[in-house]
Amino acid sequence: MRAVGFKLAALAAALWLGGSSPSLAQPQGPVALVGATIVDGNGGAPIPDGVVLLRGDRIEAVGPRASVRLPRNARVVDVRGKWITPGLIDAHVHFFQSGGLYTRPDGMDLTSAVPYAEDLARSKSRLDETFARYLASGVTTVVDAGGPKWNFEVRSRAAASPRAPRVAVAGPLIATEPTVPQKKLDLGDPPIISAADPGEAAALARALLPAKPDLIKIWGIGSGPEGARRLRDMTAAVVAVAKPAGIRVAVHATDLEQARAAVEGGAEVLVHSVDDAPVDDAFVAALKARGVVYVTTVMVGQGYSGAFTGRPALTVTERRLGAPDIIATLSEIPPAIAAQVKDRMPDATPQILANAKRVHAAGVRVAAGTDAGNVGTLHGPAIHRELELLVAAGLTPSQALTAATRDAAYAYAPKPDIGLVAAGYRADLLVLNADPTRNVSALARFAQVWSRGVSHGAASLIPESPEALVQRQLEAYNAHDLEAFAATYAEDIEIFDLPGAAAGRTGKAALRETYGPLFQRLPQLRCEAAHRVVEGPFVIDQEVCRPTPQARPRRATAIYQVENGRIRRVWFAAAP
Question: How many CB atoms sit inside 10 A of residue 29's CB?
């Protein structure tokens, strides 16, 4: 059944997205965004009542309203009460991986349930949807840190699409040791190729040059002094090939001694945090002196742990913006396997966070990256959990934003023209409804995303899932916004009370008559979904409600049925 479901999902996506890349839309004339508070991504003081003047794919001018002269033919967009930031950058993703449970058979072989070929075929067939989910998450640029050679086609497709982020790619990863599990990923276009020695690593890198990769990536597999020596020598050999061609070398090395060896070999990007030990002064000094970009990827371990133990803990943002069919797979681990791996997955998050804080405090360029595509790390919304974790590490919201804009841009290119709201930079922007310098959660809710000078609303990029609709309804309920709450319901909404299931309220007029007075009478009333199950168009919530923060909670179960993008029926069951 799962295989059939994947095929149907792929077919539906093909019908919705179309079979080929759309032509790239071009912005028309100068556009002035007027009245917002500008947060430039460079760590400077916000500019109140600002103006950002766009011309084509570039920012022409930025400053206070009084200092920016508008062309007569400029289209003025009133964004008073909003905040403007650079578009977000995810400095580490993998397009050949879906983010679902079955995407890494080299780590957990579940191919008897879903063949790897099906998961890979889905990733290829749904590229346009994946691109749109990045933009809908506010991510205007991504760095694909290694995959099959068809990644170069991904870059070309993204460049031709008006609904895609900018994409930088590395070709196949060059592994420093041959391993058997990685062969499970080889379906004729391997994402990982092994080098026996530095000479072979250099030859593999040389073979990639005609495709003009943005990065060449090395995967440091070995351990101990010998593994570190091999990684150092192979990195140096690849750097000798890549540097004259203007291509940087990135290295996967999560152990401190491996990471140290990679830096000594000339790596310019470390695509993961060090997770096995505290970083020391000598290592941090080397990162800073050599200008190495240190990519965080904090959340990827949490994604694996949640899916492999049968307890995926997705955020509201991930459920709202992630692909529903991929999210569904994250709860499908067989219980017997979950029981076996439960105690074999130590949580490296505290060490990763401590090291991220340490290198950031020392002035190292720290870039936010998620490793999206790996099991449990969803394309698009994963960046928002990464930012929340960086704040948990001790970065301020402004510093976390800079990690996902200005500093992540250096993983994309050595001399980037993205990642800042500044004259001459690319017109990739977010127009936000709340202040991101106070809380990074503001970055997950925006009014507009501007990509290459073209504006998009999140709702125009991806269809709203039943779960996202029900969550939007719950948020409007808690905000006591009657009209926003009613807007999530069908005109002929029916509400039933179980067990008798007689329709007690029918139509939007009855809905307003019930909930309008309720919101006025109980201004502190709040509900949350303690548990949620999604089955196609049905969303089943166990809701916990409190009329005041100190009041005893009341529990009820609500079953929402979604039709044509609105809640059509609700069944309530509550204890007496």
Answer: 11
